[in-house]
UniProtKB/TrEMBL annotation:
Highest taxon listed in the record's lineage: Bacteria
Keywords annotated in UniProt: Membrane, Transmembrane, Transmembrane helix
Name of the protein described by the UniProt record: WD40-like Beta Propeller Repeat
Organism listed in the record: Kryptobacter tengchongensis
Keyword Acetylation in record: no
InterPro entries per record: 6-blade_b-propeller_TolB-like, WD40
Length: 352
């Protein structure tokens, strides 16, 4: 009996050792990655809890600026953190509602849109009895130092001025405004001067980003065609809303010329961003989901229109941005959320 017990104990010891060695030296599947996400590697989660979105790299790519509803805040405020998620700090006023933040060249200044000058309270939440709508709150675009101090107002027109981003050349801000009665794309200098309108077709044109050489702009657009669509669009606009159920990706020159539609489907395609090769655009879309609730990242060839799916997580993935060398990507996702509606910021190595 003693011998049998010793053999059993010895065999159990060998089993434990072999198991330890196997699990120590056998590569394990990345827990944050879907098996089909071949373009993503070494995914790291940077925020944990709340609603975090639209994270964009600083020009030196050591920091991220993003909007977040967290802690005691009832609506979005602007935060900056290092690209490893450390040194998180609030840089907006903590009042009103903010959106669409971006660094300026040199990373000593930032821009973002805010409603705090209209009211210190959060704007009313959208009226979803009208369907799934985005509220066109009374945003203006502000500039501040990177710590939030020395806040200055760049736009001062009634209604919506938001969705501002900056050219990699460091000379222009591109943004969306309702100043002329419709949602159009404009550019202006970094001090808010020399405003120029780029789009003129009826409907929503927005979410613009410059190409890496500053010569092109990609954006999302909804241009209602028949009379019923036009009537619905105009009524929603009058009520301060837009229904983002059908959005297509477009490209134009930085001066508004040579507009070209890139996607052509019945989906909501949004958040486009140029790959550094200048030949592709990454964006978010629900094109694969008949119910329209699941958004994933896709990348499209500008010339051929060929589309490749990038993410496969069964919920939301959106707001992607590459580093200038195309080796890293940051985006917002519902993956690994602890409760419904939680959205966090993730960064990963990009594998072409």
């Amino acid at each position: 009996m003693k011998k049998d017990a010793f053999v059993k104990l010895f065999n159990f010891f060998i089993f434990v050792v072999i198991s330890f060695l196997f699990f120590s030296f056998t590569p394990q599947e990345e827990p944050l990655k879907h098996p089909l996400e071949k373009h993503l590697k070494n995914i790291r989660q940077l925020t944990f809890g709340g609603e975090n979105a639209e994270a964009y790299f600083s020009f030196d790519e050591t920091k991220l600026i993003f909007q977040s509803t967290r802690d005691s805040f009832e609506c979005d405020q602007i935060f900056i953190m290092n690209i490893d998620g450390s040194n998180l700090r609030l840089v907006s006023t903590g009042k009103g509602k903010t959106t669409c933040s971006y660094f300026l060249p040199g990373d000593t200044e930032i821009i973002y849109s805010s409603t705090h000058h209209i009211s210190e309270k959060c704007p009313p939440k959208p009226d979803y009895s009208k369907g799934y709508v985005w509220a066109l709150d009374n945003y203006d675009i502000f500039k501040a130092k990177a710590d939030g101090s020395n806040l200055r107002q760049l736009t001062n027109t009634p209604g919506y001025d938001a969705e501002a981003t900056v050219s990699p050349k460091g000379d222009k801000i591109v943004f969306t405004s309702i100043r002329d009665g419709d949602l159009e794309i404009y550019t202006m200098d970094l001090d808010g001067k020399n405003v120029k309108r780029l789009t003129y077709e009826k409907g929503y044109d927005g979410g613009p980003f410059f190409s890496w050489d500053g010569k092109k702009i990609c954006y999302r657009a909804y241009h209602p065609k028949d009379s019923a669509e036009i009537v619905e669009y105009e009524q929603l606009l009058k009520d301060g809303y837009i229904k983002p159920m059908k959005l297509q990706i477009f490209v134009m020159d930085a001066d508004g010329k040579n507009k070209k539609q890139i996607t052509n489907n019945n989906a909501a395609n949004f958040a486009p961003f140029f790959h550094p090769d200048g030949k592709r655009i990454i964006f978010s879309s629900n094109m694969h989901d008949p119910k329209g609730r699941d958004f994933d990242l896709y990348i499209v060839n500008i010339e051929t229109g060929e589309i490749e799916r990038v993410t496969y997580f069964p919920d939301f993935d959106g707001f992607p941005m590459f580093t200038h060398d195309g080796k890293k990507i940051v985006w917002a996702s519902n993956r690994n959320s602890k409760k419904r509606g939680e959205t966090n910021i993730f960064i990963a190595d990009w594998v072409d």
